[in-house]
Write a structure and sequence with these properties.
Layout: E1 2-3, H1 6-13, E2 21-25, E3 28-35, E4 38-44, H2 49-65, E5 72-81, E6 91-99, E7 103-106, E8 109-112, E9 122-123, H3 127-137, E10 140-146, H4 154-163, E11 167-171, H5 174-183, E12 187-197, H6 208-228
Helix pairs in contact: 1-6, 2-5, 3-6
Bound molecules: ligand LNDFFVEH.
The site of the ligand O=C(O)c1cccc(C(=O)CC[C@H]2O[C@@H](n3cnc4c(=O)[nH]cnc43)[C@H](O)[C@@H]2O)c1 has 18 residues, from strand 5, strand 11 and strand 12.
Length: 235
């Protein structure tokens, strides 16, 4: 499970009965938690898609060398929510993890990197897992955008929504985490608790504490789902 910052990681830790223990590995520090029938490794992977990808990749590589590869990576944390579908303190589970600003500007508008002939801009989490996670937590299901620049104007929010009408939230790590997981052949999902609306910058409107509490509550319900999810359900 990869959050961006320690405050998000600690919100997830609070969902577990025991605090777990720290494991220092090359390139990454993990927090190992015990669930009812398995272990979870948690890391504060850094803010933004590049650092998140590097950190998660280090964890995936270390696990493989320990002969204990992961079967799933979860990107989790706070996010901006598109109103009215994703109000502050609500939860969102991604059925699409989409890089919203990876591409090129042109006179005719934004061109995603796929139209330039490179890579990909969307990862699709396992549908059965998305459904089970949303059912357990009460989260909305939709696209979660990954951006490198937090939206701060109504016009940018409207442009993103026009290009991604199914978007419920934007955050800064999901696509990087998904790229790392995909490179290791591991499934990915993303769950976000909304801390602020996507739109004009308004620091007074942030509700980070409420979002972190929602994240803790969500992981209390999500842990059994993650433990029982079988990757072969979706094949
Ligand atoms: O300074 C601002 O206007 C501002 C507005 C929202 C968030 C920030 C952050 O620095 C937090 C980035 C951090 O939290 C996630 N996050 C939370 N809200 C958003 C958002 O509206 N858009 C993108 N990311 C958001 C993100 O995943 C980062 O980890 C600053």
């Amino acid at each position: 499970m990869a959050t961006a910052v320690p405050a998000e990681r600690d919100a997830v830790v609070r969902a577990f009965p025991e605090p777990g223990r720290e494991l220092r590995l090359p390139g990454v520090t993990l927090h190992r938690l015990r669930g009812p029938s398995g272990t979870f490794d948690l890391l504060a992977a850094g803010v933004g898609p590049a650092l998140a990808a590097a950190s998660v990749s280090a964890a995936l590589t270390a696990a493989r060398y320990e002969d204990a590869p992961y079967s799933l990576v979860v990107s989790a944390g706070i996010a901006g929510g598109f109103l009215p579908e994703a109000p502050v303190a609500s939860l969102v589970v991604a059925d699409r993890i989409t890089a919203a600003d990876l591409g090129a500007e042109s006179a005719d508008g934004f061109l995603p990197v796929t139209e330039l002939g490179f890579g990909r801009v969307t990862h699709v989490p396992p549908p059965s897992l998305v459904r089970a996670a949303a059912d357990a937590t009460g989260a909305g299901v939709g696209t979660v955008l990954t951006v490198s620049t937090v939206t701060g104007t109504a016009s940018r929010a409207a442009a993103l929504h026009a290009r991604h009408p199914r978007a419920l939230a934007e955050a800064m790590e999901g696509f990087g985490v998904a790229e790392a997981a995909d490179a290791h052949g591991v499934a990915v999902m993303e769950i976000r608790a909304v801390s602020n609306p996507v739109g004009p910058r308004d620091r007074a409107a942030w509700r980070i504490g409420d979002a972190l509490t929602a994240l803790t509550t969500a992981f209390g319900k999500l842990a059994p789902v993650l433990e029982s999810w079988n990757r072969y359900d979706d094949q």
